[in-house]
Design brief:
Elements: E1 3-7, H1 33-42, E2 47-51, H2 57-69, E3 73-79, H3 87-94, E4 100-106, H4 119-130, E5 135-138, H5 144-153, E6 159-161, H6 177-185, E7 190-194, H7 212-222, E8 227-229, H8 242-252, H9 259-273
Parallel strand pairs: 1-2, 2-3, 3-4, 4-5, 5-6, 6-7, 7-8
Helix pairs in contact: 5-6, 6-7, 7-8
């Protein structure tokens, strides 16, 4: 099975997406399965993991409904707020849906990432780790240290870092991102999505080689069995086409990689991680 492990859909009339404004005309429109399916066919992808794009319970209900209507959606990663005393109630309702495969914690949106180290947050995450439930982690590079500390307290977490932890690719910075990712990769239950990289580069002047060292470090740290391809479509369109996103990753793969490693990256690892 070949999968795109990270993409989004939205309908602007829903008013869930406050971050998508008219100042982002590329994104300020509806994006639905019929718009993506041709790209999946072009790259022989069997389906996708649809990831939440708004921090609302209602949006998760909406994308689960989309999953009912589209065979191309293999699984849905919804949203939960572990600071909400009712997070477990929402989780139990979502998990009744056969395509609910995970939820995402949006650390990126937290004013102070150290809030994830609060005892109630750690306790909640441990409960999901005990169930071996998949969790996406949206984080930017300067938040990796508290995330690494959190993982030390929840060592059994089945988690995946979205967008390779959003290093400062446009600035060409490698540290402290690399050191923190090495620490995170030391947890055997942690995976990494090779996604969202083009929007961390200069949107108009990037070159494929700008991404190569970051990609190769991730592959070295996590190995071929804990990495996933994700397009981050349609957000990627701010900087690159779907074809370009695939090409950037393909060009950076090690020469020694064969069909087994490529199959793992382009679907089998996501299938295993999300228990599909």
């Amino acid at each position: 099975m070949r999968l795109d492990a990270h993409q989004h859909y939205w309908t602007m009339s829903r008013k869930d997406y406050g971050w998508i404004t008219p100042e982002l005309p590329t994104l300020y429109r509806d994006y639905l399965p019929e718009h993506l399916v041709p790209h999946l066919a072009d790259h022989r992808l069997d389906g996708t993991i649809l990831v939440q794009a708004a921090p609302t319970i209602e949006e998760t209900d909406y994308i689960l409904k989309l999953a009912d209507e589209s065979d191309s959606i293999v699984g849905v990663v919804g949203w939960l707020d572990l600071n909400d005393p009712d997070h477990r109630t929402h989780f139990e309702r979502f998990r009744k849906h056969p395509k609910f495969v995970g939820f995402r914690i949006m650390i990126q949106e937290m004013p102070d990432a150290s809030a994830i180290l609060e005892p109630h947050f750690v306790k909640a995450l441990r409960s999901y780790a005990e169930e071996d439930f998949p969790i996406d982690l949206l984080v930017v590079a300067h938040q990796l240290e508290p995330l690494a500390e959190l993982l030390d307290q929840v060592p059994g977490l089945r988690g995946v870092i979205d967008h390779i932890g959003k290093p400062r690719i446009a600035a060409g910075e490698m540290e402290p991102w690399l050191s923190q990712m090495k620490r995170i990769a030391g947890h055997p239950g942690m995976y990494c999505k090779l996604s969202g990289m083009v929007t961390e580069a200069d949107h108009r002047q990037w070159e494929p080689e700008h991404f190569t060292p970051y990609i190769q470090h991730v592959l070295e740290l996590f190995g071929s069995n804990r990495v996933m391809f994700g397009s981050d479509w349609p957000v990627c369109l701010l900087s690159a086409t779907y074809d370009q996103v695939v090409d950037v990753l393909e060009q950076a793969l090690p020469n020694g990689w064969g069909e087994r490693e490529r199959a793992a990256l382009f679907g089998l690892n996501a299938k295993e991680f999300y228990k599909r």
